[in-house]
Amino acid sequence: MIEIKFLTRFIDITGEKNIKIEDVPDINTLIEFLCKKYDESFKEVLFDENGNLRDYLKVMINGEDIRDINGLDTTLNDGDQIVMFQTIAGG
User: Would you list the DSSP string of 33-44?
Assistant: First the structure.
């Protein structure tokens, strides 16, 4: 079982603060599942026009940014906690 926590803009899109799902081998598969579950608006927020994860979005696995592991190919294990959020910049 993998737990996904949504923060900031993702709560508005999903209407949920967290969900749990099973049988997700990697971040790519997780994102495919979430894009189907929450429709095109989820995908539009997550990816830029080139299909890359937007710079201002964070996808953390057990407290570590997926960009510092294997990106979208990062393997998931039972008990992992994913947190998805949009960073906020001030000025």
Answer: HHHHHH-HHHHH
Name the band, by pLDDT with cuts 50, 70 and 90, for residue 41: confident
Task: With beta carbons less than 8 A apart as the criterion, state whether 64 and 71 touch.
Answer: no
CA distances from 32 to 28, 73, 74, 90 (A): 6, 12, 14, 31
What are the tens digits of pLDDT across the range 61-75?
999 999 999 999 999
Tokens read off for 17: 């603060």
Strand order in the sheet with 64-65: 18-21, 2-6, 81-86, 57-61, 64-65
pTM: 0.89
